[in-house]
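chain below, 374 aa
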Amino acid sequence: MTDDSTADRRFFQATTRDFLAGTVPIGTVRALAESGTGFDRGWWRRGAELGWTAMLVPEELGGGSISGQPMTELALVAEELGRAAAPGPFVTTSAVLAGLATGEDVAETVAAILSGETIATWAVYEPGRGFDALGGRVPGTTATRSGDGYLVTGVKDRVEAADQADVFLVTADGDDGPIQLLVRADDPGVTVSPAWTIDLTRRTATVTFDAAAGTAVHTGDAAVPALRAQANTAALLTAAESVGAADQALTATLTWLFDRYTFGRPLASYQALKHRMADNKTWLEACRATAFAAAAAWDAGSPATTENVSIAKSYVAERTPVIAQDCVQLHGGIGVTWEHDLHLYLRRITLGRALYGTPEEHRRHITDLLESAA
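prediction:
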């Protein structure tokens, strides 16, 4: 493919890769994993300047994509972030912006998120529950009217980057059905409790809302398509991240097999190991193909977008952990040590399997979609 849009996307991807290599090499990622911050806000602002936050936002609000295919471009960024095991609130911020793009009176908030000055994250998960947003179901957190605004009460967990967030987009249950609200992190009714997460650079927390002041963005019927867009965005970009992480794990393993000798021969010369690597490479390319097919469906406005996203997330979340685990096994004992970088990619993939819908949840969702269409 040689069309201009493809060339622009390749340049954008290469620019993102170079930026990550220069600013968050694996040594920096390790230092951030062991720090109390998870990511540097100044670094995130530089990423925003590259256009990471602009793709899903309409031009009238200051956004826009490079090639007119915003989700494909976002998936390319997500893949590079996964390949670098990079930190940052990319997935959750993108999900928030997917919702705010159709919200009311949000221009000022969107502008602050676009610039990277404001960190926004999506509070959707309820303790003890799965990814209810897939089916558009209303969670247990409630929002009650109070003057011109709302008071939000409830507990959300698995909230990404909550310890650095300035604002939460909270999915709640309102008087007229589902409602989505913006709640400031510095509101006295908000308590953030950092939680242990297997991926130390993509951290989560539990957030308690005790009559916290909220401003409605979507209410009633308008909240349902926004919620669907957010769920699709988060699931698809998490899948693309896992593809990038698995790709890097496989590349490192291939190098290891050629460099490591046994009985006078490189490990890569043994037929059984060749077959395993060939299988892993085939699965990886299938993962990439399904993820970017879903992104293409989004960009084309296909009515099958939601189904394609669930297909991609379920397949990628099932296969990439197998690829990563096999990479660890092919490295032998050194592969399971803290000092080896493989665990960083395995951690990213393992968290990616669980967040924004497990394979089982997405398969059930596909079944529901097929039944409703019958």
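Residues 223-259 form the longest helix (37 residues). The two ends are 37 Å apart (CA to CA).
thats it, cya
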